[in-house]
């Protein structure tokens, strides 16, 4: 069987897919350039050379699987026509279909990336300290170390390349990205941007918007111009809690309601205020919602029409004052009495010596718990005793 040189090479649709064809071998990459499918193809080369519409048959047409490893995304039809490859993309759980038109290009899927390791890696080596508005420094939590082609910060670590892009709005920027170049973010934090005197990134905490983390050499911490994004607190879709960051955390179903940690403490934040564990979301806590098209879903988007899940209404915490009035804020709207302290939290946190109020680097202030309920960061004294 022969092959057509008209098909061999790189093909782009512009955003969703990138094809590479070499005789009977097809490699499909998604928008991040990660390999989504590798398979063999068959077609009539004479038909292509004659300029006719020519079907292309894939030995494997499944592009994605669900959690049970059942086929989900697939290519339903592929053909060559008028110098273009046409792809009909569908799925196994709806009748939705999309048509993509691939055009042949003279560059590979990574040609938009300029690797700049030789230029930057040597001067990035060593220890970097995280900037804090309080000036406090905890070696375990606030120190970033770069050794060779690997970085380490808190629980985040990995091999990296220093890169720039040769096209796009940020083509003059420099970044640290994962080694295989198919992702622009590390597990747990976004890509690091490199400046002459600092590095910046943001931690990935589900649907939360986190403050920018800024790193500099110890001797430069007082000299750098700190971006405004580093001076904000954690924010989410939940209600604002006076004196601290947004704590409702509507990004995951059921997060705004109180929950009981395995240590026994009741919490309303993302992290346990007593032991620092993050609330886990299980199948039992998943919420279903009905789309305007009528379809019931448990994800962020409708399976049938693709509409986003509506943002939930802010959860209001109601408490009853001793005078009988129900309130939402910290003071009674009738008699101005202060909202009572949660008994379980009071019992857990007041046993032993009184706890001095402290401020977290995420922006929460006036905390009297062992761990920040917004970001999980331990109180400095608690970190030393934590096993």
Q: What would your notes on this structure say?
A:
There is one protein chain. This protein is mainly beta and 387 residues long. Among the domains are: 9-105; 113-231. The protein is 8% helix and 27% strand. It has a 9-stranded antiparallel beta sheet. The protein has an 8-stranded antiparallel β-barrel with strand order 11-12-13-14-15-16-17-18.
Describe the structure in brief.
By secondary structure, the protein is mostly beta strands.
Looking at this protein, list some descriptive labels:
mainly beta, nine-stranded antiparallel beta sheet, 387 residues, disordered C terminus
**Major beta-sheet overview:** 9 strands, antiparallel
Provide the helix percentage.
under 10%
Radius of gyration: 27 Å
Oligomeric state of shown chains: single chain
The H-and-E topology, N to C, reads as: EEEEHEEEEEEHEHEEEEEEEEEEEEEHH
Largest sheet strand order = 5-7-8-9-1-2-3-4-6
Proportion of β residues?
Answer: 25-35%
Q: Please state the overall shape, judged from the principal axes of the Cα atoms.
A: flat
Specify the number of helices. 5
Q: What value does the average pLDDT take?
A: 79
Ends apart, CA distance between termini: 66 Å
Poorly predicted regions are: 236-256, 382-387
Number of strands: 24
């Amino acid at each position: 069987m022969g092959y057509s040189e008209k098909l061999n090479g790189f093909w782009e649709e512009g955003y969703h897919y990138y094809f590479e064809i070499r005789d009977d071998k097809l490699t499909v990459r998604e928008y991040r350039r990660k390999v989504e499918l590798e398979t063999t193809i068959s077609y009539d080369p004479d038909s292509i050379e004659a300029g006719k519409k020519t079907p292309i048959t894939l030995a494997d047409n499944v592009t994605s699987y669900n959690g049970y490893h059942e086929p989900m995304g697939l290519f339903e039809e592929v053909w060559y026509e008028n110098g273009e490859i046409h792809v009909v993309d569908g799925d196994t759980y709806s009748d939705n279909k999309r048509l993509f038109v691939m055009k042949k290009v003279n560059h590979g899927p990574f040609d938009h990336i300029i690797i700049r390791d030789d230029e930057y890696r040597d001067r990035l080596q060593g220890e970097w300290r995280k900037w804090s508005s309080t000036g406090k420094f905890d070696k375990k939590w606030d120190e970033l170390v770069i050794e060779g082609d690997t970085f380490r910060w808190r629980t985040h670590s990995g091999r990296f390349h220093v890169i720039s892009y040769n096209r796009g709005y940020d083509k003059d920027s420099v970044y640290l990205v994962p080694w295989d170049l198919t992702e622009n973010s590390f597990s747990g934090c976004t890509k690091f941007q490199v400046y002459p005197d600092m590095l910046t990134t943001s931690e990935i905490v589900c649907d939360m918007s986190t403050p920018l983390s800024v790193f500099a050499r110890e001797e430069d911490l007082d000299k750098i111009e700190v971006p405004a994004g580093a001076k904000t607190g954690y924010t989410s879709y939940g209600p604002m809690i006076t004196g601290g960051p947004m704590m409702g955390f509507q990004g995951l179903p059921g997060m705004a309601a109180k929950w009981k940690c395995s240590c026994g403490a009741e919490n309303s934040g993302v992290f346990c205020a007593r032991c620092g564990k993050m609330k886990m979301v299980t199948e039992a806590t998943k919420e279903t919602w009905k789309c305007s098209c009528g379809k019931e879903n448990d994800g962020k988007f409708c399976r049938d029409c693709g509409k986003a899940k509506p943002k939930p209404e802010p959860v209001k915490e109601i408490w009853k004052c001793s005078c009988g009035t129900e309130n939402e804020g910290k003071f009674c709207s009738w008699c101005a009495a202060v909202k009572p302290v949660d008994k379980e939290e009071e019992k857990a946190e007041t046993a032993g010596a009184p706890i001095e109020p402290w401020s977290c680097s995420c922006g929460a202030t006036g905390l009297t718990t062992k761990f920040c309920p917004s970001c999980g960061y331990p109180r400095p004294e608690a970190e030393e005793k934590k096993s």
